[in-house]
Amino acid sequence: MKKYENMLKEHSLKATYQRMSILSVLDKMGHGCIDEVYEKVKETHPTISLATVYKNIITMVENGVITEVPIAGLKSKYELKKDDHIHLICTECGDVKDADMDDKITQDVSSVANNSSFEAKSSNVNIYGLCKNCKGA
User: Fold this and answer.
1) Domain identity same for 37 and 67
2) Residue-wise pLDDT tens digits, 15-52
3) Lower CB density within 10 Å: C or N end of the chain?
């Protein structure tokens, strides 16, 4: 829990048990929508409300502790803030897997930004398709 406390303090947020529980759940899940996070947090903190989880997730997104992963046609998922990477998003089941951005992809993203006179601060690439399970179904 100390790691989550430090993450919050680095972003000038109080380390409340609600926030630390949300971070712990997201860390274990990898990616989760607000409803999924709420159900997991509720297992250890049965009195927590969905509104509290929602409010804290939004606050942590706004402060750069966690990242929103928008999924076309489905609820957004959230993850702990990480280095730039690729999201492989299944349009059928909504599963999200992470993949590393190699040097070539990083250079291509920087080139696109530079050619548009845009100063990129960070990037996450979303690739939509079918996961192994849905492709086989």
Assistant:
1) yes
2) 999 999 999 999 999 999 999 999 999 999 999 999 99
3) C
Q: What does the angle CA 130 – CA 135 – CA 137 come to, to the nearest 5 degrees?
A: 135
| Helix orientation angle between 34-44 and 50-62, rounded to the nearest 10 degrees | 120
| Same-domain status, 51 and 14 | yes
Q: How far apart are alpha carbons 21 and 1 in whole angstroms?
A: 9
Residue carrying the six token digits 């966690």: 66
DSSP state of 91: T
End-to-end Cα spacing for the chain: 40
pLDDT at 63: 97
| Domain boundary residue, one of 79, 97, 117 | 79
What are the CA-CA distances from residue 40 to residues 14, 26, 49, 116 (Å)?
21, 9, 12, 42
- Asked if residues 56 and 18 have their Cβ atoms less than 8 Å apart, the reply is yes
Tokens standing for residue 97: 């897997």
* Residues 87/127, Cβ–Cβ less than 8 Å: yes
Range of the domain at 25: 2-79
